[in-house]
Design a protein that fits this description.
It contains 3 helices and 4 strands; from the N terminus they run E-H-E-E-H-E-H. It is an alpha/beta fold. A 4-stranded parallel sheet has the order 2-1-3-4. The longest helix has 16 residues.
Length: 105
Amino acid sequence: MRILVVCGAGASSTFVAQRLRTAAAAAGLDWDADAGVESTVPTGGHDLVLVGPHLRERLDAIRDLTRAPVAVLPDDVFADRDGGRTLLLAQSTLAAAGGAPKGTP
């Protein structure tokens, strides 16, 4: 499973992606999470795109750039210190999109 976490400059998404990787590994999932900006969406080949809350107004434009499911992260995503809530959001978004999460034991 390849997940792209998108923010305006790529800095805040780095922290979210790192925490998501840690949470996924702790759950026994073989998932990778990368940080990026909007321009990296069409080139990444990701299975899921998570968008920073400050880019909410760009959601439709970002969805147009990929075939992967796209979800907006909650406003308090940076308070998710262990990445557990972000992992749950990723799993529920994938389930709602009809895709079984890859790497699930």
